[in-house]
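USER:
Working in pairs, take the chain set out below, taking as long as you need, and write a paragraph about the fold.
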Amino acid sequence: MQIRATTVLPAERRPITLHTADGLELVGELALPEDREPAATVVCLHPLPTAEGMMDSHVLRKAAYRLPALAGVAVLRFNTRGTESRHGKSQGEFGEGGPERHDVAAAIEYAEFEGLPRPWLLGWSFGTELALKWGCDPEVEGAILLSPPLHRATDADLDVWNDAGKPLVALVPELDDYLQPEEARKRFARVAQAEVIGVEGAKHLWVGEPYVRTVLNTVVERVAPEAAPLPVEWDGPYERET
């Protein structure tokens, strides 16, 4: 069976609640491999909630549907403050990226408390700003950035990542609305270890199964390289997204 956009592969999925230092409860989900201990963990930071971004935005949802089974990777998703999806609505109000530092910290602390191995951040658009501004934590191995606009993140934030030496991988769509590969390479040049990957034909929202596969393969190549490249077919049980 070919893995398609609506394919949901087996995983142990559990609803979770993140508790922030400023007293909010955030709605989330943890997807774990069913048949083994996870090799690594991806903590997802979603796109802008005022533009319909949420934990169920399609690339992050598909990561949770596929990576536990295909790569043995745990996927933690959550709605930042004030954000709603079919999983529920997190407490609080959208804070333009400032108060969300508590949300990022709560997710990282949850991964640490649960003993989830080798956490990486996977940020998309607004989520890349949160990763760059608030995610360079001692517990985090590195970050993968999808469509980074670099609107809120500053050179000082990039310098923190440079000084930490943690891996930083930016997937930049050729046709992005905000930051395209050439300019992205200039902006990220101040991070010595940063890797900027231009993706031909891709747009900011990564619509289309070929682009989703590019993203998920890049994630797995960094966080669980022994599982790369991801298969495109599956011969076990599965469900279809409804």
